[in-house]
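Annex B. Sample input.
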Amino acid sequence: MRGFIFLLISGIILAGCAATQVCVGPADSSARVKELRCEYHVNPVGIDVVRPRLSWVTQARGRGWRQGAYRILAASSREKLNKDKGDLWDTGKVGSEQSIHIVYGGKSLKSRMRYFWKVRVWDRQGTVSKWSEPAYAEMGLLRREDWRGEWISGPKVYDWEQRTRRHFSKTIQWTDRDAQVEPSPFFRRGFSLDKKVSKARVYICGPGYYELYLNGRKVGDHVLDPAFTRYDRRVLYVTYDVTEGLLQGDNALGVVLGNGWYNMHTFATWNFDKAPWRDRPAVICQLEVDFEDGTSKRIVSDSSWKAGRGPIIFEGIRNGEVYDARREMPGWNKCGFDDSAWADAVVVRGPEGRLRAQMLPAIKVMKTIRPVKVTEPKPGVFVFDIGQNIAGWARLSVSGPAGTQVKLRYGERLYADGTLDTENISMFTYQWEFQTDTYILNGQGRQFWEPRFVYHGFRYVELTGFPGRPTADNLLAKVVHTSFERAGSFECSNRLLNRIQQATLWSYVSNFHGYPTDCPHREKNGWTGDAHLAAEAGLYDFDAAAAYTKWMDDFADEQCPDGELPGIIPTPGWGYGRWNSAAWSSAYFLIPWYVYEYCGDERILTGHYEGLQAYVELLRSRAQGHIVNASLRSTSYYYVDVKILAEAARLLGDSKEAGRYARLAADIRRAFNKTFYRGDGVYGDGSQRSLSAALYQGLVPKQERMRVADNLNADIEKRLWHIDASPVGTKHIFNALTQNGRAETAYRIATQTSPPSYGDWIERGATTLWEDWAGKSSHNHIFYGDISAWFYKALAGINPDPAGAGFKRIIIRPNIVGDLQWVRAEHDCMYGRIESAWRRDGDGLVMELLIPANTTATVYVPTSDAQGIIESGARAKKADGVKLLRQVGETAVFEVGSGRYTFESPI
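Annex B, continued. Sample output.
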């Protein structure tokens, strides 16, 4: 009987395994599934990708761990998931190494639906891990009909025109559109809840920026929300979980709106005041409340809301904010406030763009800095030195008589007399004050204030009108930018390079506020060329893929039917034609390609396939014999664009189109060499720009590469190891030299301190990268930021392998150059952390590596003696998980699996 029962139970178990194909086998305690992400986010709330992609990181002890299979369960409740019931999706055991960007394939996901998911994995020997901790994702409002709220605005207030005339000293020519320049509107809506709440969400969009309040408290920690888009084509909404903020009984919602980019009411060069979307600030808001008894309630924006005016009497994104504390309304966003004097909100059409979920990291206050020095260059004029060029604003602490006006002017340079110099950043803004905030005191004791709907680029804040003599305690600097997670770090024995790295990091974040910009003060424009030049640095240093995904959608919104793209994105229509070139528009190709290379994301590349095709066809129609505008640089980018398009076609499985574009690329390459190669290793005018472009873009025939590289090296040596190139050329030069065995020359350029050089900037006090070598223009630009990527690739040696996108395969190839004694770097890729460190040890070299689970790496050890290499105490060629592939000249090449490795070698 006992044997019969055993056989019966065994049969049931085997039958169950056969039904689900998930016989698990022995559990492996060494492998742990961590860092579950959906569309790059941990537990996102309010996404609108109906087939979201799931990714995870596996951590495993030992070496060489590779995934053999996975199983994903997705359930409609945590309880079901805890019972291993995937009522939405059960993949079964899937034999695959894939652990990133796995497309959800379960039951349809509905608006507002939250689903829970978890993963377990098998190694190649069939040993299974424990289940991961549960993760979740929640859908936003997926259909336009799910929005029951209406766009509302405040009543027009024409009398404010005269008040504005009196406040500003400049003469202003007023038009009907200027009637839209009004105090920031305030809205409120009271409501009551008589049951216990189980779940509550607010969905909100206020395209000119908004702040949302619930029962007197600001909801969330976002600022400058939502991110800037072309509002007549796409506007972003944000979802908040407000379950804990609701009360049983009376409640109140409050909203404040700004102008932002939606209602650019001041004139500047780029015509945003004439944008086709421009309109008075408006908001759409929807609160969905689910009760514990299964019922629900919805509060939506409509004419029942009340609208009023408050203390923000002026704000413009490039100008600043004027705040009159005497007009404050204590308790306006709480229950019981008397709003009888407020007007009814006005239902308006609102922006024409489709509502989409904001799926990039929000802009936030990321850091607070205390000034390092306060000076008084003139009586009553106080200058606060933050010690660091940043993007953000100042927080003021002040007390004094009512009506006192304190003015804060922001800039990044000082005149010789110590007063603020804004000549280098204010040249393009012609109307009203620039980067200036004004606070008017109400006389009610100590007051703390900071602006809401503007941000500035600055190192110095000039304070005038302050009652008394301020100290460093009266002003704090708020650092504000897109809230990226850090994805990498780099450090080395050369202090100058470390300072250049820090300056690059500050420039990158200063120039990302929902989209990449050129500078955070003068323009705040999304110049396409600036962005793609810094994109690799951004992807090494920050978790930026979701932000770039959003910006590529902005490209699609701006592309003309014939394929043309503007030089700035988003744009009101400015930047097409002569303001653009192939080198700039190639951002539409290069950034998706970099995200594919570094994050393994095929969707960002293939999802824009038709737009990429349209632009290539535009260039082909304009090219003469495959040469664009008789330009070496433009043609080189045309070639790269077509190669990327061919790869996108391949990823889509369209071999015919892939072949067609590959042949076009070959035709461009032949035409390029026929037109621009002069022989003897010289392209074009023989400049650093021309030689490096031909090399870096892959246009030089193999047999000519060394001659071209020799000429590039010779020109740099002739100029005493200085660059003679623009930002585009600078990126090309560093990479072309390194790829062709001249990393030592690249290092000499990087460590140069006489002009033109990065070191000259640092010695002149730069804390961010500048726009030009002479320092006459912006002092916070990301134009030259690719040097950070070069630090990772060339010095630390961390490179993606084309054979395995997303660092599925890794190349570790450091260059031991100059006086460098050590380098340490790490990068958190989609598979986990990569670490690469090396140090000189007498006549030898020690390399310490960490390769994440489920990946492999090719390691280049700079030595001619492969037999003499020791790895973790053993001969490398016999070490566990290490395979000697070949010896190539002065380099030994190994293949390793995941794990930690220490290579010791003579050099």
